[in-house]
Design brief:
6-stranded mixed beta sheet; about 140 residues; alpha+beta; single chain; globular
């Protein structure tokens, strides 16, 4: 079981109406995606309801660690994370420090997106913490 490091980045994985559903993405192993992100070194993974980016599902949001924020890192939203290589790139980036501490991999550049409509209007998403071994 991976235990999130104190002061680690947080990763938010949308599992609302479209993200993480076999109805919209039947060829994706959604549980494997969650497991891969949860197992990344030092990551605190939160599973959330709809973030309002349904047209760009699956959505993954990375919040910088306190050190990353102090270094200028900001919350980074990714859309269309539908391939194990993209999920691995997110996990590896976060394990290297994420926003503010590690350079964004080129593979992820085209997947950066604006915040979802729901959070842009100031609404909070419901989140549930997930740790490796408790899924």
């Amino acid at each position: 079981m991976t235990v999130p490091a104190v002061g680690a980045c947080r990763v938010v994985l949308c599992r609302g109406c479209c993200c993480g559903t076999t109805g919209k993405h039947p060829d994706i192993d959604h549980q494997q995606q969650a497991d891969q992100l949860a197992d990344a070194a030092g990551v605190a993974l939160l599973i959330t309801g709809c973030l309002g980016n349904c047209e760009r599902s699956n959505t993954v949001v990375v919040l910088p660690s306190p050190a990353g924020r102090a270094a200028g890192g900001t919350v980074t939203w990714f859309g269309r994370i539908l391939d194990p290589a993209l999920t691995k790139a997110v996990a590896d980036w976060v394990a290297r420090g994420g926003p503010g501490l590690a350079e964004l991999p080129e593979l992820l550049g085209a997947h950066v997106q604006p915040p979802g409509r729901r959070l842009s209007r100031g609404r909070q998403a419901d989140t549930e913490p997930v740790s490796a071994g408790t899924r």
